[in-house]
Amino acid sequence: MSVVEDRLGELERRVARMEDEAAIRRLQMAYGYYIDYNRPEEVAGLFAEDGAVVFLSGEYRGHAGVMRLYGTWIQNLFTGGKRGPVYGLLLDHFQLQDVITVAEDRQTAKGRFRGILAGGWHDSALDQKPDEVPQQFWEAGIYENDYVREDGVWKIKRLNYMMQWQADYETGWAKTEAHLQPAVQTYPENPIGPDIILPEEEWRQTWPHRQEVAMSFAHPVLGAAFKAGHFTAMKDQ
Predict the structure, then answer these.
(1) pLDDT tens, residue by residue, 170-214
(2) What SS3 state is found at 137?
(3) Which residues, 6+ apart, have CB-to-CB distance to 102 below 8 Å?
(4) Among residues 41, 30, 36, 34, which one has the least CA distance to residue 64?
(5) pLDDT band at 228, cuts 50/70/90?
(6) Within its chain, how far is the Cα of 190 from the centroid?
(7) Chain centroid offset of residue 218 CA
(8) Are strands 47-55 and 153-168 parallel, antiparallel or unpaired?
């Protein structure tokens, strides 16, 4: 009887972990849809009370910081301060290639996702386009996120987006560099700035620069976690 009970207990744990993974995946996919349609309040609602977003060179903290990034900076840059989708603007975020790792106590988790963004303005809406952004562009980045169960609900603890490249649609990634550059001043001196500036060694250089991004999950066969510099060290041997 104890063998059956042990087996049932193990199956219950496995099902619970699968449910956690599904909830976190749904959470991240919802994030992508909400930023597609410029709904910053809904984005902020996905975060824990002390949640944070890491973007470019800085960290935006708490719901106020999340709203400053998505509801002030990005909203003003792309939609002229208007909430929701606007005529002539494409800003689609695809959340892909997820690997989710739930902690043994099922109270925290880590997730790695790949993000791809297609953005641009229709010819009839060019009067809305900011000068620093090309009319049609691509963007890609990697998320290494932390999640937390808060009052029984999975929420984003730290959304760590590492933009890898941006490219004009017409010329492609062979000829372009990122049009969004790191912030150098914090809020409130910079009204749209982050709460803290990351140490300079943690700034993420974008294309054509390339660097390894350490993975939060263990190798599915070898068991060890990938560490930045690992493959370089193997090559040097």
Answers:
(1) 988 898 887 777 788 999 999 999 999 998 877 777 888 887 888
(2) strand
(3) 17, 20, 21, 24, 108, 109
(4) 41
(5) low
(6) 22
(7) 20
(8) parallel
Q: What are phi and psi of 204, to 5 degrees?
A: -105, 105
Which whole-number Å values give the CA distances from 169 to 40, 85, 192, in the listed order? 27, 21, 27
For residue 158, the cross-strand partners are 52, 146
For residue 31, report the phi and psi dihedrals to the nearest 5 degrees: -55, -45
Contacts by 160-164, CB closer than 8 A, 24 or more apart:
160/54, 161/53, 161/54, 161/55, 161/115, 162/54, 162/204, 162/213, 163/55, 163/56, 163/139, 163/204, 163/206, 164/140, 164/206, 164/207
pLDDT of 80 > 90? The answer is no
pLDDT at residue number 234: 32
Q: What is the DSSP string of 60-114?
A: EEHHHHHHIIIIIIHHHHHHTT--S--TTEEEEEEEEEEEEEE-TTSSEEEEEEE
Which amino acid appears at position 170 of this protein?
Answer: E
d(CA 15, CA 190): 47
Q: What is the DSSP letter of 131?
A: T
Cα 158 → chain centroid: 9
Task: Give the position of tokens 């972990």.
Answer: 17
Are the CB atoms for 140 and 115 separated by under 8 Å?
yes
